[in-house]
Design brief:
Helix content is about 25%, strand content about 25%. It is of the alpha/beta class. An 8-stranded mixed beta sheet has the order 5-4-1-6-9-10-11-12, sandwiched between helices. It has a two-stranded antiparallel ribbon with strand order 2-3. Helix 1 packs across helix 5. The structure holds cytidine-5'-triphosphate and calcium ion (CA). Cytidine-5'-triphosphate binds next to helix 3 and strand 9.
Length: about 230
Amino acid sequence: ERPDALPRDLEGRHVVVSAGGTREALDPVRFLGNRSSGRQGWALARVAAQRGARVTLVAGHTADLAAPAAVDVVPAGTAAAMEAAVRAAAADADVVVMAAAVADFRPIATAADKIKRGGDEPAPLRLAQNPDILAGLVHDSPRPGQVVVGFAAETGDADGDVLHHGRAKLARKGCDLLVVNAVGDGKAFETLDNAGWLLARDGGEEELPMGSKALLASRIWDAVTPRLP
Ligand code: CTP
Ligand code: CA
């Protein structure tokens, strides 16, 4: 879609988008991380700005992406930094979209010095749970009427298919909208196209057909704007 063909339906709104992956340091050179490129979150931020919003992009680690035009970028490389940045920006936000891939766990401690190979059996990694930023936002609802959007990258397994896991996650998180992507087999991560389902807390379910991440972003904003007070 051409920017000048987009509606200006986010004018006067502040939207917060988190994007990219967090890295949880093991030592000065090593981390636990993930494959998130940040591209879907970047597209959400860019399209929101084109539709008139004031945009805060809380940016984790990404592929080599340039900052989108007319967007405030707040770098946040770890789950803890991302939680602080999202919380601060969410205080006056109309919409928060958690597109970031937040590490669920972090090493229980970060070694000050580089961990050496040594001669013995490697020590097992001890991990601590990171805060669930999305669930925390929904729980504390810092602003009445704020629309909170989550993402879920799912694979089917013995317990059920992608949609089954998406519905369960929506119920667990309590956010207004959940974008569910199928992952694995080269889908979603490190790709330019995306597809999935948009699930709403009020029961609405919409399929998002395969298309560019910008097109998917437009469909997501189309679902958000009618929910704004
Ligand atoms: N999320 C978050 N904070 C975390 C982990 C995830 O805010 N510590 C957000 C993500 O940004 C995403 C949503 O929660 O919007 C779902 O993330 P996901 O990893 O699918 O959910 P989890 O509850 O961590 O479930 P899973 O065990 O499947 O990883
Ligand atoms: Ca997770």
